[in-house]
Amino acid sequence: MLTVDFDYFDIQPGHICVDLGCGEGRHALTAYLGSDVTVLGFDLSHADLKTAQSRITDMAPHNPQGAVHFIQTNGIALPLADQSVDRLICSEVLEHIPNYVSFLEEIDRVLKPDGRVCISVPRAWPEWVCWKLCDAYRRTPGGHIRIFDATHLKREVERYTFTSTRRHGAHALHAPYWWLRCIFWETQPEPLILRLYHRFLVWDLMERPLVTRALEAVLNPWLGKSVVLYFDRSDRDRH
What we know:
- The protein is of the alpha/beta class.
- The protein is built from 10 helices and 7 strands.
């Protein structure tokens, strides 16, 4: 389930691409398949990184020409030189981080002058509904500790000599699923409606029928569970 629009992200052969907070590697592995690039996936979770690493062999039949590496590290101290990264993804990460500004500072440090960054966070109002429906949703260890206003986040990122270039929503069909999850959070076993909705989402992910792709495209601008922001380096303060 991809949140980043790779057609827009413009990864080119020879690029170094970082997936910061890569989890099980969905975006890192997609970037790896795209062209002759070096992809670095960073995360704190050893278990998630093991899963990501195990998936590299699944890529072999697609004959990728680049390289992908998964590394356990803290996102506020990346083992990278200044201005060494062409493209950086930070998807569904900042809402988990107490001092998320330190992540923005590190992104600013490692990105090249002509680099591009994509940041996604949960959209504010669907996330607010989840918080109101279920207190345990946000108190689960490793869960979301803040709700972002995307416009405010955009302004914060632009303080670091970035210019916003695009914004879109993603995963609109997933928002009602999470509301249902919150309603039935402590119900065991999970009710039929929740199991059926999950089955529908898996089917949609695998089959990608035209009707649900069209429906999600219509709903994403206002119902998308995630809001996705793209930035290029700004011309200001370069010299």
